[in-house]
């Protein structure tokens, strides 16, 4: 680690207050579940030093208590580690990510109110979303999205976003996923203008804001298959909100499965995508989430404190705060999409 990175860990800006002064409740003890191989990977890629890990967590905890005493966040070692890993143990960036994480949940009630698997049985049963049973060669879990399975007349697009968020929350509980990250496989077969028009700039900006700056997960690649011409319009809506690093991780394969297999091997893919891992089973992931119902009820179905001015003032990242979608933006979306035909 560089001297500059080390200084972040010992900077006086974290000005630690003792636990006695803060009267913090005793936090559950952390037990590392990473293999030796992943510990080495975390050290090399995330600047995580096992010998400093708990000190780093305490430093972030002190910053939360000092700067955001009303944040109403978990201060468990394991929970805070997610944010440190997602920001390579840069204290300030990890703190901002944590604040964004809570702020976006409070600013989009349509997505985050009553967020639990049992409230999303229709989405989870539609086949819109699943997680493949095998990770890729880098250890990344593969999230498979199939927008063609969504029927807009049945429920709004925000229900799909809720299902995606639940999935990410479940995945990030794994320390292995915190280190390795995830890969997205999105199949746009059958997606036409009527369906694509639901994903306008307002929705795009909010979702990308959460994924890039409001959730502690590493997205290592986004593989798009069977994209129709309309996808050029969809991507034109998305791209302005993407950071260059993330934009460079988008791979458009069309119907060329050989191209897909260069990124994701046949051995982990279902036969629908030219793989050898059997048929795609969306129901298995549905059952995983439903089995976690109690955890989600505890986390997302309790009253939250109102968004304070303090929190709103800290949202430096575009796409996190609430906005009103106007008629002009809707007309702009349809214009972009029509131009692709």
UniProtKB/TrEMBL annotation:
Polar residues bias spans: 8-21
Pfam families reported for this sequence: CRAL_TRIO, CRAL_TRIO_N
The protein's name in its UniProt record: Alpha-tocopherol transfer protein-like isoform X2
Record-linked SMART domains: CRAL_TRIO_N, SEC14
Gene from which this protein is expressed: TTPAL
GO terms assigned for molecular function: phosphatidylinositol bisphosphate binding
GO cellular component: membrane
Region (Disordered): 1-21
Top-level taxon of the source organism: Eukaryota
CRAL-TRIO domain sequence ranges: 116-281
